[in-house]
Amino acid sequence: MAGTLRVGGKVLATHNSETDEISLDSATNTSNMSFDANHAGIKSALNASGDAPIYACRAWVNFDGTNAFSPNPSTSAIRDSGNVSSINENATGNYQINFDTPIPHDNYAVAVFGSNEAPYNIALPTFGGPEGSSPAGAARSTYQQTGSVRVYFTDPTGYNTASDRETVTVAIFC
Amino acid sequence: MKLAIFPNETTISVLVPAPNCELTLEQICAKDVPTGVPYLIIDSSELPADREFRDAWQADFSNPDGYGA
């Protein structure tokens, strides 16, 4: 049987008899409630089956690291993003992602992907560090900070040679 | 499209604001340009068309639009 939970005439939650689910009203103040991110209901809603806990992506971005910076882009180099205020293109293949709201700590995990037309279909990035000290595929985290992270791509065919990527995606987890 | 540029150790950095960021470009520059570093707000058409010598780009920052906070 459908119903509503009211306090002082104000609706706090509604029960859906068809799905047997209870939904909090959007105006309900939840500041004094506690929630478990790994509650079975939340994991089910996120299609996260199994016992492994879930952790959130705190920032992400997809951008063009090549000709979107020049010449004369009509649209932003940033195709889409979340919790990112800007990106700095520091040099060839050298990009810094600036977070809109800082990440809680700097021990977060960074997932990075960069791709170009063949033959550079996939390239592993390096983090931080000057261009002259990073072989292709190496990874470091010198510039991994709460407010930003820097990713650096090398040419997979040339040691210590920086190169741009047409598609760069970065996601931050912690 | 408006961008910002600022000097780094060897060349210049190009700052591209996120389209969905609610801050103004000036506010983003204050936050994301290194502290005390001058920046210029430019139109993207002012950037060189050829990236072959990207790492040699230079600019005059003697009359900046602001500084990183």
Number of domains of chain A: 2
From the N-terminal CA to the C-terminal CA of chain B, the straight-line distance is: 23 Å
Largest sheet of chain B: 4 strands, antiparallel
Taking all Cα atoms into account, the compactness measure Rg of chain B is 12 Å
Can you tell me the overall shape of chain B?
globular
Q: Name the chain pair whose interface involves the most residues.
A: A-B, 33 and 26 residues
Oligomeric state of the chains?
A: heterodimer
- Work out the helix count of chain A: 1
Question: In total, how many beta strands of chain B?
Answer: 4
β-sheet strand percentage of chain B? 25-35%
The SSE string of chain B, one letter per element, is EEHEE
Question: How would you concisely characterize the structure shown here?
Answer:
Chain A has 174 residues and is mainly β.
Descriptive overview:
The complex is a heterodimer of chains A (174) and B (69). In chain A, 3% of the residues lie in helices and 37% in strands. Chain A is mainly β. In chain A, strands 5-4-11-8 form a 4-stranded antiparallel sheet, with no helix packed on it. In chain A, strands 6-7-10-9 form a 4-stranded antiparallel sheet, with no helix packed on it. Chain A has 2 domains: 3-45, no CATH class; 57-173, no CATH class. The radius of gyration of chain B is 12 Å and the shape is globular. By secondary structure, chain B is α+β, with helices and mostly antiparallel strands. The chains are: A mainly beta (174), B alpha+beta (69). The interface between A and B is medium-sized, with 33 and 26 residues. Strand 6 (84-91) of chain A pairs antiparallel with strand 2 (12-17) of chain B.
